[in-house]
Amino acid sequence: MTGVPASAAGGPRPAPSVRQVGLWNIANVLTMLRLVLVPAFVVLLMHDDGTDPAWRAFAWAAFAVAMITDVFDGHLARTYNLVTDFGKIADPIADKAIMGAALICLSVLGDLPWWVTGVILFRELGITLMRFWVIKHGVIPASRGGKIKTLAQGTATGMYVLVLTGPLATLRWWVMAVAVALTVVTGLDYVRQAVLLRRAGLARERAGQTEQAERAEPAARAEGPERDAGR
Q1: What is the distance between the alpha carbons of residues 99 and 136, in angstroms, rounded to a whole number?
Q2: Cα 180 from Cα 103, distance rounded (Å)
Q3: How far apart are CA 61 and CA 189, in angstroms?
Q4: How far apart are CA 78 and CA 82, in angstroms?
Q5: Residue 116's closest CA among 181, 51, 38?
Q6: 107-155 confidence digits (pLDDT tens)
Q7: I need a labelling partner for 210 at 20 to 30 A (CA). Which of 38, 70, 110, 194 fits?
Q8: What's the pTM value of the predicted model, to 2 decimals?
Q9: Which of 57, 26, 28, 7 minimizes the C-alpha distance to 163?
Q10: CA of 152: how far to CAs of 26, 70, 119, 174, 227, in Å?
Q11: Of 230, 126, 119, which is closest to residue 182 (Cα–Cα)?
């Protein structure tokens, strides 16, 4: 030991470098790809009023790629610390955009009842708004049921994009029925979690306010005699 401070011996040490995540990383590129695939998917599906099986097969391929990238971009961002503000905003938008575009186009073509599209989109948009409603109290984690719901929705919607007949057409109806049921059930569960989370958050806030008031009261009482003594 020299007894000389490190700052004097070698000057101030540089602060440890913080890894900056750039916009152009693999996770964000996959999200951007999914956003670009939305209009491409719509054009392919709606070509010739959706009557050409070949074009609908291309549309299914675009939809499948979009759904697959949805699985990988979030995983890559979390695993390799590639989370960015752009990704936080663009990823959920891309998710809702590709599914919403598929459901609306299928209903426009008459392949899917409008009430199915309405139920799914109402649930997805409603839960997104509810997350913002309770975000100051905490985050509602994605449940296993929600993940199964997403898989069921993607599978059912993909089957409706393709031109299917016979048993496969019947099967896709049942898969969509399961997807709608999971959509409703998981949506209600998210509402329950949001209400409980908000109640717990408000209770913590009230408890904190009460504690602050109790701490301030003895101080206020102590100040009273001091003021009287100074008169």
Answers
A1: 28
A2: 12
A3: 32
A4: 6
A5: 181
A6: 999 999 999 999 999 998 988 888 778 878 877 777 788 889 989 999 9
A7: 194
A8: 0.76
A9: 57
A10: 26, 14, 15, 10, 71
A11: 119
CA distances from 67 to 4, 42, 53, 95, 196 (A): 61, 15, 21, 8, 31
Tokens representing residue 139 in the block: 């985050």
Q: Give Dmax over CA atoms of the chain in angstroms.
A: 97
Q: How many CA within 13 A on the CB side of residue 80?
A: 13
φ, ψ (nearest 5 deg) of residue 70: -60, -35
Chain segment 157-197, per-residue pLDDT in tens:
999 999 999 999 999 999 999 999 999 999 999 899 888 88
Helices assigned H by DSSP within the chain? 6-10, 26-46, 53-79, 85-108, 114-133, 144-161, 167-229
Closest to 27 measured CA to CA, from 114, 118, 88: 88
C-alpha to C-alpha distances, 85 to 2, 19, 91, 134, 138, nearest whole angstrom: 47, 15, 10, 20, 19
Burial 100-111 (b: 16+ CB within 10 A, else e): bbbbebbbebee
CA-based torsion, 26, 28, 31, 37: positive or negative: negative
Measured on CA atoms in the order 202, 204, 206, 209, is the torsion positive or negative?
negative
